[in-house]
Amino acid sequence: MAVSIDKCLSVAASLLILTLIFDLISADVAPGSEDAPHRRFEYKYSFKGPHLAQSDGTIPFWVHTGNAIPSADQIRITPSLRSQKGSVWTKNIAMFENWEAEVTFRVSGRGRVGADGLAIWYTSGQGLDGPVFGASDSWNGLGIFFDSFDNDGKKNNPAVLIVGNNGKLVYDHPNDGSTQALGTCLRDFRNKPYPVRAKITYYHKSLTVMINNGFTPDKDDYEFCAKVENMNIPKQGYFGISAATGGLADDHDVLSFLTFRLTDPGQQPPPPEVEIPKEEKDKYQEEFENFQQELDKKKEEFQKEHPDVQVEDIYESVNDREIRQVFEGQNRIHLEIKQLHRQLGMILDEQRRYVSVVTDEIAKRGTQGQPGQVPTHELDGIVTTQQEVLKNLNEIRHTISESMRQVGSAHNQGNAAGTYETVQHFNDIKEHIHIVKRDLDHLIQRNGGPGEKAKCPEIPPFPSCLSTIHFIIFIAVQTVLFIGYIMYRSQQEAAAKKFF
Q1: CA pair distance 111, 254, nearest whole angstrom
Q2: If DSSP codes are grouped into helix, strand and coil, which group holds residue 399?
Q3: Model confidence over 257-309: pLDDT tens digits?
Q4: What is the CA radius of gyration of the chain?
Q5: What φ, ψ does residue 224 adopt, rounded to 5°?
Q6: Which runs of E-coded beta strand occur in 109-180?
């Protein structure tokens, strides 16, 4: 019973995720265009992670066969092993004439050439197993093939082919379906940095295939592949994806399959589907009540075994998370202000040394009475300016201290209103520092003579932290580690080659 409840909850979570996807995607469909058809997301014919596969390995509203492996965020139709084939198909038959499907997939392999390929289907029946890219032959409907292997040797692969069938044709494998293709384009979809996307639109008996090659993260970077006019396909059918490998192998992973019903602009949108039957509602309600009772029982048992632990305090609520994020941000601001306060203290000490040097120079020149010396009023002006700089620096330091006090107060009270004032203080501090820098440059220029450079107080030499012997030992250790890593990597690659 617990497994069935987990399954129901996982299905509900998947439906909620698909509904949110529809809200995001429907806003991107030709806003304001009068000729664009109305799109309605069909969750029963779609899948997308996360929480794609349920606890029992099934996919909501889809069935998988063969070597297909569902996971939380994708479906691996076939792994990169020889002679594998798999497929996924919708359980419900689609009863709408015009539709659009957006498929995101990734085909990757270690070899320069891959095989065999991947296919997207819309057929009157589920082709669960067969020789055509893992699905049955002589299908009635539409197949869009992403063919990786060049069977006819014409060097025209990887390619995308549109092949229609009325249930009587056998797929022409030796010629890569070129004799039956209604439309085709050459696209290399293997080993791309980003997932490849295909947009397939069937509207008013016109089929259009757009491809995103996966070179950029832009999801809307589609380019035209092929278009088929006056194409008749079944009015009702199943959507499916299949893949197969042969002597060569690739990983065929499908990340999402999103289906939309298309209706003409200005027409009344199709009515929503009928509600869940009362029998199923009662069944789900009964399972939910049983699950709730079992959960309450387990909570009571846990509380008896751990009386000091509060179950409600184990998980963080939304408000607690927001408050924690605010406090963490204020702590970072507080640390930055403290660092700036220390740096400003160092600047003040340096400025005091400059003032003492200038004062000593004035006293020395006054006692020696050298000719051509700087006039006394200019030296007095320098000293006055230095004192003003010190005064400004003290004001800046006071401002930073006030900022630290306000940030600390906001942190203790849990109030985020001090953040804006802190930013204002940062701007004031930056402005004061620019003024101080400009004044210091001006003082240095005035203090130095025409032919002499400004002399700063000599800084005692720093002791060397690294001797020659330590450096040689460090280089030797690094060399040994590097050689060991190269040998380990060579052994791993040799083992991998033996496996394949």
Answers
A1: 20
A2: helix
A3: 999 999 988 776 666 655 667 777 788 788 888 888 888 888 888 888 877 76
A4: 37
A5: -70, 140
A6: 117-123, 140-147, 159-166
CB 44, CB 57: distance < 8 Å? no
Dihedral of CA atoms 220, 223, 226, 231 in degrees, nearest 10, equals: 30
Contact in structure between 107 and 190 (CB atoms under 8 Å): yes
- CA dist 184 and 158 (Å) reads 11
Average pLDDT score over the chain: 78
Whole-angstrom CA distances from 314 to 302, 311, 431 are 13, 6, 47
Geometric angle at alpha carbon 65, from 125 and 148, rounded to 5°: 85
Omega before 460 cis (within 30°)? no
Spatial separation of the C-alpha atoms in residues 358 and 386, rounded to whole Å: 9
Distance CA 244, CA 115 (A): 7
Beta pairing partners, 66? 86
Contact yes or no for 385/443 (Cβ under 8 A): yes
- If you search the block for the tokens 């099934």, which residue do you land on? 58
DSSP 159: E
Q: Minimal CA–CA distance to 88: which of 75, 103, 72?
A: 75
Residue pair 14/31 in contact by the 8 Å Cβ criterion? no
The rounded distance, in Å, linking the Cα atoms of 136 and 131 is: 6
Neighbours of 222 (CB within 10 A): 16
Q: Return d(Cα 204, Cα 233) in angstroms, integer.
A: 11
Please write the tens of the pLDDT for every residue from 433-487. Answer: 666 667 666 656 655 544 444 455 555 555 555 667 877 888 888 888 888 888 8
Closest to 134 measured CA to CA, from 246, 33, 42: 246
Report the alpha-carbon distance of residue 134 to residue 84 in Å, rounded.
8
The answer to whether residues 44 and 90 touch, using CB atoms and an 8 Å cutoff, is: yes
In sequence order, what are the residues at sequence separation of 6 or more whose Cβ sits closer than 8 angstroms to the Cβ of residue 116?
Answer: 133, 147, 148, 149, 243, 244, 245, 246, 248
Please check whether residue 18 is in contact with residue 59, taking contact to mean a CB–CB distance below 8 angstroms: no
Only one residue has tokens 């380019």, namely: 223
Phi and psi at residue 195, to the nearest 5°: -60, 145
- The rounded distance, in Å, linking the Cα atoms of 114 and 252 is 10
Q: CA triplet 345, 349, 351: central angle to 5 degrees?
A: 115
Amino acid at 220: D
For residue 195, cis peptide bond before it (omega within 30 degrees of 0): no
